Amino acid sequence: MRDRVPGICGAPGMRGRVPGSCGAPGMLLGLALALASLLPAAGARRSQDLHCGACRALVDELEWEIAQVDPRKTIQMGSFRINPDGSQSVVEVPYARSEAHLTELLERVCEKMKEYGEKLDPATQRKSYVRVISHDGTKMDLSGVKFDGDVINSLKFACESIAEEYEDELIEFLSHEADNVKDRLCSKRTDLCDHALHIPHDEL
Known about the structure:
Layout: H1 23-67, E1 74-82, E2 88-94, H2 99-106, E3 116-120, E4 127-131, E5 145-146, H3 149-165, H4 167-174, H5 181-189
Antiparallel strand pairs: 1-2, 3-4, 3-5
Helix pairs in contact: 1-3, 1-5, 2-4
């Protein structure tokens, strides 16, 4: 009689089968595939949370900077060429919401992301981004807030990407006073947030 090879599934009357050698690998493979299928969705959600948070923080910071400008301050806009009658086609507009001021703000506003931390909602597992340093020195509630270099760098990079890609939209929305700019820009216009309408407005 030939020697039988132990441990190979499917051989009739096989001796010395290793318990679990057939079923366990199949179960583990199935589990691994199931977990792998969840990773892209989880990664996409993390990325969306980050970009949504960066967009909302960006708008908050721009609106705060605009509010700090003296409303009486103006800037001349238009052509400086002399008309035939000797006049100039120049008008003065409020500086705070002028394109020149907004463009200048967009070049530096993402530096403010170093003052933000990451907060995880235990119920939804969604991440949001909140200030860890207030503008006016008010004590902040930092319970459950993650604040480190990785969070800052990721948020700053996302902010810079949004500021560059959506510069025209940001200037369009902020060139005049409007309500719910964060929701209208970050959710409806850009789709950066799928749940922005359910997020309370952040207080600076």
